[in-house]
Each structure stands twice: as structure tokens, then as C-alpha cells.
Input
Amino acid sequence: QVSYVVSSGSRTLKWSYEKDSSASSGSDCGWVDQVVWTPSPVSYTVTFNANGGYCDEWSRTYRPGDWLGMLPTPYREGYVFDGWYDWSGDYVDYYTPVYSDMWLYADWYEELPYLWSEAYVDEVEGAPWLTSAVMYDGMLTSGGYPQGMIQAKVAKGRVDRKSGEFTANVAVTVQLWGEKITFKGAVNEWGEVNCMEAKGHHLDLYFGSQGMTGYLDDEYEIQGSRNLFAGKSSSDKSIAAEVLDKWKGALNIGGEDGVALSVVIGTKGKTKITGLVDGIKVNAVSQLLVGEEWCAVPIVVAKKMELAFTLWLPRGEGETRITGDLDWCAVGKPLSYDGREMFFCGGGGGLCDEIEAAGGELLHDFLPEEVSVMQAGGRWIVAGGAKAGKVAFERGSQEIDYSKTGDNPSGLKLTYKTRDGSFKGSYKIYSIENGKIKAYTVNVTGLMVNGVGYGTATIKKPDLSWPVWIE
Output
């Protein structure tokens, strides 16, 4: 049985068939019967679901077979509208016909921060901001996410006496993952540098009064800012001081999958990034970029691992953001809560599998699952407990006496630095191997982010690491 929707008006329906084989029996024909005509409703209703946003239309009425036509554009703060979709996830547009009642759902993607609007990357004849030496710093992005960093040093511009043309020499250094590329060229009176070539790469740049834009190889977009920390005007110094007053010092990034990074912004906007990601040490440098509404710290790590993200810091009100690889992580300054009780959660990570594979038995009751940690000023006080190595052990029955271990059976020790919110320490993991108790020393490092600790536990033999946290 097959059904067809027929719009209003005079219509001719034709049924035909093609033979896919031949035979000598039966009738050489086909039969169509039980044709039923069901009148369509006079109209259909299309309902709009803004899916977390706001739409000034709730629904529309259509005649059968009509196109959807021009659809409303909903709004959602911090997001960009990406079209309407039906209940099955199919995209609909102006020419989509209506043959039934429909629900349409708005699709969104999160709006990425930016350094400068077009108004600040302006074209002014003579490029007056280039009449003295100036420096620009920026990042290379693809799909809005960082792929590398760029620095441009523009010399003081001059007007040629014969031609009357304005030019300024420029030297550009690009770090694209592990590759370093150096370009040299000249800026014209509009602030443009057209197609500099080096090592098979080509670079197009434009220098505005505040920002820098361009493309590398027509593949990577460039976002940049004039380096206010190197500026000599009172305005530059005032803005730089305002930004540093808010963001100078340590910011910590933490995630439950073993992410603990310290981002320290210095007096000239120079930024150092250190810490651990999934047990791998990270050591990188960057430059704080001052934009219109946001400041940005692009971070690209190419050694030992590939890691790229941008830390966005609001100049005014608002929350810090991360775009790129660590967009799910928490960001914040170290916070101190005097008199607050926290709990350390460690565990044995992959060590349990290693011990069992060797025929041993992990003593789970000695793991630091919820060890009480009390913050008293700048000190952490960890719950007490006896050393597990001194508990009674009977080889024949393999019975362990846990009565002496108290609230800290793993012997957890922690120290804390209020200056940068870092903590470190150690604990023991115990097992029964070859009829004896064996102790493994586990080292812990991490950072506090907005009152929550994110860290990594590591052990040398065997070489293992796993995430730990404090909350």
C-alpha cells in the first residue's frame, strides 16, 4: 500500500510499470484497486521550539503543500543560531513543503569570544599608528581554535621623498605547532602587507589602530592586538595597568581527567604555563593579548603532546572561558577557605591491574578514598592514622587487622601553598605479594581551582599515573 499527498487543484495521476522478466503464463498487465481518496485538512500548524533561546513567533499555519518560506530567527545569549531542524534531525529551509503538522527545533553553537570588532581594525589613509615603532602579538586559529602564535615588529614608517609613498618595514615570527617561520616585508599607507613568502608559506596581514588580522596560507586566520605593554603612550600604559591589576598573578586550570595547569601572567603580559595533563608535564610560554572586551592567552604545546587552547579573560564583568582542547575544564584563582573540611580521593588507578596480573592482591581498605583534610590558614591538616606496614598479618589465613589505621589508612601527607594554590604530597598503596605485604609510594601534585583540587598521582615502578581530586 502506498499513499501520496496531493495538493489542491486539478491533478492527473498515472500508474505505470516495467517488466523485469518475461513469462508465458498469466495476463501481461497489472491491476490497481482499492483507491481511496482521503481529504486533507484545510491547514497544518508548524510550531517553533527555540531550544533554550527566545523566538518572537510560537507557531504558523500553512496550507497543504505550501513551502515553509522565510522562517523566524531566534535569539540566545552567548550562542549563534544555526538553523531549524525537524523532530528527526533533518534540516529545513525556505523550500521545505508542509504536508503535516510539524515541530521545528532551533540549533545553536556557542559563540566564540573575539579580540576586536571590525571597528577597531580600521582602514585610515596614512596609518598614523605606524608613524612610530610598534609591536603586535596574536594567534593563528582554525575553526576558532588556536593552532599557533604570531609576533610582528613594525619599524617606524617613512614617506619616500621621490614617490611620496608611505612604507614601514615589518619582521614577523610565526610559531605553527613545532615549526618556526620568519617573514620580512613592508607595510603600505593602509596598514596592509600583501603576501609575504617564506619556507613555502605565504602570509597576508593588516595592521589596524588596535588589532591585527590576516591569513597564513589562506588556511589559518590571524587574530592579534597591538602590544599595549610595550606601548609608551599614557593611554597604553593606563589600559595595561588596568588589565594587569585584574589578572596579574596565578590562574589555575583543573579537570577531573588529570588536568592541573598553572597560568602565571607577568608584568609585561608574558605568561608561563606549567603543570600536568594526563600525567605529561607541560611547560609553555605565551603573551597576554588585550582586546576590545576580552583578553586572550593562546596556548599551544607541541612537545611530548599536542595541546592547543585559548584562555579568555573578560576585561569587564563575566566569567573566564576556555576554547579548544580543554574547554570542559574549570578556571579560577586559588581560593582559601579557613576552617573548611575537604576530602581527598585518590585510589590505586591502574596499579590494581598490575598487581593482580602479577598474582598479587591489592588491599583496597588501605586506599585513600575519602581522607579528611582540614584547612587552617595556610596549612592543611590531614586526618591521622597508623602506618599500614605495622598491622598484624597472618600468612596462612591472609587476615589483616585494620583497627590501628584510623581515618588515614594510606598514610596520606599533603602540603599546600596559598600563593599559587598548589599542593603536593604522598601516600602508600599496599598489596599482598608472595605472602608478604608490599608498599608502593605514590606521589601527588595538583592545584586548587575555585575551592576544588585537581591533581595527578604518579608511581615510578611500574610507571603509572591517574587523577586525584579534593572536594
